[in-house]
Amino acid sequence: GENVEQHPSTLSVQEGDSAVIKCTYSDSASNYFPWYKQELGKRPQLIIDIRSNVGEKKDQRIAVTLNKTAKHFSLHITETQPEDSAVYFCAADNSGGSNYKLTFGKGTLLTVNP
Amino acid sequence: GAVVSQHPSRVICKSGTSVKIECRSLDFQATTMFWYRQFPKQSLMLMATSNEGSKATYEQGVEKDKFLINHASLTLSTLTVTSAHPEDSSFYICSAAGTANTGELFFGEGSRLTVL
């Protein structure tokens, strides 16, 4: 089955700095890679996703890059703000994108200090 | 986006009792829903895939007789924790795929179960 590794487990940055979270996956058949943000005690919310036919995707301050050869993908947050503080999970879907069965990374606790 | 509602948000029960958690897709039909378990400061672990009108598919290591899943309609899946024990205390979250077939999963608010 799929195995997703996520690093770092915790990340602390100053407001305005950039934050980068990296994930690797094991199954070369995986072709859908979403990132979720989860605030304490709340539901995960999709912030950005990328499919295997795209190398990079950007949405305002958030971007995701994918390297299929190396089987890793990264989340980049620029100009961080205190409200970006949360746990971020990467995930991989090796079902062909048709049944949304995701394997999650262990999460990264991001703290943005004012 | 699509809305998934989970109920109850918190439940406390005595050891040995059973607890039912509901997951509803409010504005779309979901033929497939997923149930996860999340321990404090840990990731979401997929427990089972709930398919409307058929038996759920459980992940390795998840006891199907302990975690009963029923998906009787296109908008409702239920998870029943039977004969609950303190080690079953956890945050349980469901998810469902939206009808736009974008691959996006929508999550419920989660249910925190505490077994005394």
Characterize this entry briefly.
Chain A has 114 residues and is mainly beta. Chain A has strands spanning 4-7, 10-14, 19-25, 32-38, 45-51, 56-59, 62-67, 72-77, 86-93, 102-104, 108-113.
Helices and strands, with pairings:
The complex is a heterodimer of chains A (114) and B (116).
Chain A: E1 4-7, E2 10-14, E3 19-25, E4 32-38, E5 45-51, E6 56-59, E7 62-67, E8 72-77, E9 86-93, E10 102-104, E11 108-113
Parallel strand pairs in A: 2-11
Antiparallel strand pairs in A: 1-3, 3-8, 4-5, 4-9, 6-7, 7-8, 9-10, 9-11
Chain B: E1 4-7, E2 10-13, E3 19-25, E4 32-38, E5 44-51, E6 57-58, E7 67-73, E8 76-81, E9 90-97, E10 105-107, E11 111-115
Parallel strand pairs in B: 2-11
Antiparallel strand pairs in B: 1-3, 3-8, 4-5, 4-9, 5-6, 7-8, 9-10, 9-11
Would you give an account of this structure?
The complex is a heterodimer of chains A (114) and B (116). Chain A is built from no helices and 11 strands. Chain A has strands at 4-7, 10-14, 19-25, 32-38, 45-51, 56-59, 62-67, 72-77, 86-93, 102-104, 108-113. In chain A, a hairpin with an 8-residue loop joins strand 9 (86-93) and strand 10 (102-104). The termini of chain A are far apart. Chain B is an all-beta fold. Chain B has strands at 4-7, 10-13, 19-25, 32-38, 44-51, 57-58, 67-73, 76-81, 90-97, 105-107, 111-115. The termini of chain B are far apart. The chains are: A mainly beta (114), B mainly beta (116). The A-B interface holds A 32, 34, 41-46, 49, 51, 89, 93, 97, 99-107, 109 and B 32, 34, 41-46, 49, 93, 95, 97, 103-105, 107-110, 112.
Q: Provide the succession of SSEs of chain B.
A: EEEEEEEEEEE
From the alpha carbons, calculate the radius of gyration of chain B and give it in angstroms.
13 Å
Summing up helix and strand content along with how strands pair, one would put the structural category of chain B as: mainly beta
What is the first-to-last residue Cα distance of chain B? 37 Å
DSSP strand tally of chain A: 11
Task: Tell me, briefly, the overall form of chain B.
Answer: globular
Coarse morphology of chain A: globular
Helix content, binned percent of chain A: under 10%
- The termini of chain A sit apart by 41 Å
Helix-strand topology string of chain A: EEEEEEEEEEE
Q: In percent terms, what proportion of residues of chain B is strand?
A: over 45%
Helix content of chain B: under 10%
Specify which chain pair forms the largest interface: A-B, 23 and 20 residues
Radius of gyration of chain A: 13 Å
Specify the number of helices of chain B: 0
Quaternary state, please?
A: heterodimer
Low-confidence sequence ranges of chain B: none
Give average pLDDT of chain A, whole number: 92
Largest sheet of chain A: 6 strands, mixed
Low-pLDDT stretches of chain A: none
Helix count of chain A?
A: 0
